[in-house]
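Q: Here's a chain of 153 amino acids. Please give me its 3D structure as tokens.
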Amino acid sequence: MTVLIRATEAEVLSASGVTLLADVPDTSGHLTSHRSIFQPGKEGAPPHLHHEAAELFFVLGGSLRVLTGDNLTVLNPGDFLLVPPNTPHAFEAAGDEPAEVLFVLTQAKPRFGYYRLLEGAYRGDTDWDEVAKTSDLYDNHYVESAAWQTRQS
């Protein structure tokens, strides 16, 4: 099975900066992938974990501050990070320019519905409580993190 998603055909969620590439049904269950652009000073994702999915980060441009467990690190263009299942993580742009990142989740549940729900929350059309109610459906479980709350920009 070959999957080709042309840039001109990818669904772009402009409020959240997400471009949907391929989801679990498109890849016969192998993976889901999207590209995100995070603006400086705005959190990309709060601390969360996935029970089933491993998440790959590949930085295309800018810098990304990432929490993994209790550790904070900054990823730069060309850096690769794999976060295993059940590992709390969070991320945001680091520095003064947007961070562009390719994400791939393996052993994932279909996630494009989650990103569309987030888009509605960013636009103010969906309540954030609705997003929180989908934890099991999309394997995206929010957690508390002292290391993330006390980070320095």
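Q: Can you summarize the key feature?
A: The chain has a mean pLDDT of 95.
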